[in-house]
Structure of DUF2490 domain-containing protein:
Amino acid sequence: MQHRKRKLLSTLWVALTATVVLNAQEPGEDKWGAWYMYFGTNKIAERLSVHTEAQFRFYETTSNFNQLLLRTGLNYHINPNAIATMGYGFIKTDGSFDEPLGGLDGREHRIFEQFILKNKVWELLFEHRYRLEQRFLELGNATDTQHRARYRIQMTLPLTDTFFLNFYDELFINLQDDLFGQNRLYGAVGVHLTENSSVQLGYLRNQFANAVYDRLQIGFFFNPDLRKVFAKKAKDES
């Protein structure tokens, strides 16, 4: 009798634990999520600028945190239409939803190398971004090192001096295991707030091998020339 009671309690405990786990790992694919983003290109010399970036990603528009992404890098402006970058990123992921790390909390240190080419066709502004990434992952109690290549083609169409449209498609290629990583298709309406700042409101379709996620994106872009800030500060102090 005692043995049967213990067995029943064990069964109930397993069932309860499974229910909690399943509820905690809902598929984020069923949610309309949101990414809130900041991007900056901060000029510090004639050919040098600093890239700054912060992204806060949610499974739902204002709740259920998914991912924090912080990235920085040093840009070398070869000419107005060509930029080479080397940088570092830190990514922290909450695995409550099964995206994309299989329900595991994760931390990532990432080194990246990047090359951007720009060109103009009629009124359309094109940007080609090539990026290599070395990813040092901590997934639960396991660690892993992965390598990835990314290519993004972006097109910007000015509508007026204030408003513009922005579109891009970005392909992620794994350099180990399965070749296809993900594909991001994006469209947005943008507003120039000042000469060096703008806001974009857009939609991202983020496709993985076995899932597709719909994400609202709100991005703020601020590109100050820090040389002017430093010059003004030096003048005020003189």
